[in-house]
C-alpha cells in the first residue's frame, strides 16, 4: 500500500503541540499487543503497523486529533497498555495509533464509585482506592500494567469475576464519556444500558475519555495454593468453594497437570504430576477454607497473607491468560482456547475425550447468578483444521467458545452481529475510521 507521507506531515504539523511518535521501532511496538498467543493471528497481523502514534493528555487534545483525522481521512486505532490478546489495538489499515496512556488522572474517588480517565493503570488505582476501603470489581492477569479504559474496551473478565461476572453485566460500568469521529467531533455521555455500545468494542464505537466505575469492598486477600492427586477432585473443590456463600473469595483458578510444571517461580510449592488450585480468599475466611480443603483431600503448600503477598509476585500472575504466557515461555508452540463449560459434567467429558492433547485450566466466574467453570485450556498448535475440530467438538457438546484466534468483535464473541452497536458506530463514525476492519457488521 502506498502511503501519502504529505498527509501525515500536514497532520503532524497541525498537532505539533501534542506528543507525536514517528520513530519506526517505537511505532511498531505501539502498534502491537499479545496477538502472538495465536499462531493464526500471528500470521494475519504480523506486518500490521501504524504510520505514527499520538499521545494526548486531555480531552481537548483528543477532540483535535479526531477532527484532524476526519479531515485527512486517516484511520485511527485507540490503544491502552496493549495487553490484549486478539489484535484489539493492531491497526489493519495503518494510520494513527491514539495512545491514551497519558490520560491517567483519577477525577474523583468515593466509597463504592470512582471517575477516572482511560489511561489510569488498574494496580495504581487500587493502591489509592484501598486507602478508603475499596477496590476495582474485576481485573485481568495483566493488572499491574493494564489500563481501566483498555480493559473496558478490549477485556471481558478476570479476578473478581467470581463475584461480579463479566464487564458487560449490567451495573459494572455506570457512565462513559466519549469523543465521536466526525467533522465536528461531539462529546457524548452514555449511562445505563447505553454503555454497552463501548464495552468490548475495541475502540470502534468512540474514543473513551472518562469512565465512572463501581467498586467492590476491599478485603485483605490471602493467597493460597492447594494441590490434589486427581484433576476432577480439584475441579469439584473449585466448584464447592465457588458455591460457598460464607467464604469470601476473589480468585478460584484450577490447573490440571502438567500446567503447574510451567510455573517456574512456584515450583517449590508444586508437586510433579499433581493438579493445583490457586486461590485468593479473605484472610478472615481461611479457617472454613481449610475445612473444605480437608473435605476434598487437598494439601496446602503455600499461604501468604495480603501483606506478605504484596511484597512478591501475586498468584494472579499465573492465572487467567497469564497461564498461557507461562506455558509459552516453556514451549512457544502452546496456544489456547476460551471456553464457557457451564457445568463440571461438561468439563469431565472434555477432559476424558481429549486426554493429553489438551490441558484444562479452569477459572470460576459468575454467570446467570451462579458460579460456573470457564476454561482457558492449553494445547500445542498443529494445524488450523485440528483447531477447528477442537472448537466444533466443544460447541457440539454444549460448551461456548469465545474464539481467541480471530480479530473481529463478533467472531470472538457470540458470532452474532449487534445491530444496535453497528447503528451506533454508523452515527458516531460515519467514515469508518475508528479501528477499521474489527467490526464485521459495519460496512460503509
From TrEMBL:
GO molecular function per UniProt: D-lactate dehydrogenase (cytochrome) activity; D-lactate dehydrogenase (NAD+) activity; FAD binding
Pfam families assigned: FAD_binding_4 (PF01565)
Biological process (GO), any one: lactate catabolic process
Keyword terms of this UniProt record: FAD, Flavoprotein
PROSITE patterns: FAD_PCMH
Protein name: FAD-linked oxidase
Domain of life, per lineage: Bacteria
Segments forming domain FAD-binding PCMH-type: 46-218
InterPro entries tied to this protein: FAD-bd_PCMH, FAD-bd_PCMH-like_sf, FAD-bd_PCMH_sub2, FAD-linked_Oxase-like_C, Oxid_FAD_bind_N
Source organism of the structure: Hyella patelloides LEGE 07179
